[in-house]
Amino acid sequence: MISQLQSPRGIAFCIKGLAHYHQKHPSTEVEQLIRSLADKLVACYEANAEKGRWMWFEPYLTYDNSVLPESLVYAYQITQDERYKDIAHESFDFLLGEVFEDHQIRIISNQGWHIKDKVKYIYGEQLIDVAGTVIALNTFYHLFKEERYPRLKKEAFDWFLGNNHLHQIIYNPTTGGCYDGLEEHNINLNQGAESSVCYLLARVALA
After folding, report:
1. Which of 19, 81, 117, 159 is the most buried (most CB within 10 A)?
2. Alpha carbon distance 145, 137 (integer Å)
């Protein structure tokens, strides 16, 4: 049952899906389910956030982080609950501050994640995080109209094209696929379907 979900990312993806469904087929039942799920994310945020230090839903940043604040934008658009809008903006600001540096995106490392009050690992970047950030920046711009969002969206997308710490192209124009990740000294030369899908979703959001 969707209403029994506890995973923040599972909740976030369900909110996005339900919001798209509600836009085509509005119903009180779906809106109430969106609100119930969004309230769970709010509870996670209130349990873990520390003003000015750690404005996040969990005591760590792991993978596909952008979907958490982005889902609250969708929840706000359906319910007009200002709590969702405020937490979305506050948490996304925090995340952007953690992953953008010198006009380049540096995604949270999958070698140890970023645990609150611990040294942040670097290297080991996954395409799903880059694509998710591009998509979320697009969503946030439509609501908040902040001028920095299109610039950051372009900088994030350019990670695929070589704007990364190795200055290596991740998108393979010969095959139309994408390499699977960016490590400290090399790229992962495997070209999986998920990587291609991530690139294409980011490309659509950029356009």
Report:
1. 159
2. 10
The amino acid occupying position 109 is S
Whole-angstrom distance, CA of residue 66 vs CA of residue 45: 14
Question: In this structure, are residues 74 and 135 in contact, taking their beta carbons and an 8 Å threshold?
Answer: no
CB 17 within 8 A of CB 23: no
Give the CB-side neighbour count of residue 41, counting CA atoms within 13 A. Answer: 34
Strand partners for 67: none
Backbone angles phi, psi at 57, to 5 degrees: -85, -15
pLDDT single digits (tens) 127-184: 999 999 999 999 999 999 999 999 999 999 999 999 999 999 999 888 889 999 999 9
CA distance 43 to 113: 22
Instruction: Report the sign of the C-alpha dihedral through residues 143, 77, 137, 170, in that order.
Output: negative
User: Which residue ranges make up each domain of the chain?
Assistant: 1-98, 102-207
Single pTM value for the model: 0.96
Q: How far is CA 131 from CA 119, 135, 139, in A?
A: 25, 6, 13
Q: How many CB atoms lie within 10 A of CB 156?
A: 29
Q: 112 φ, ψ to 5°? A: 180, 5
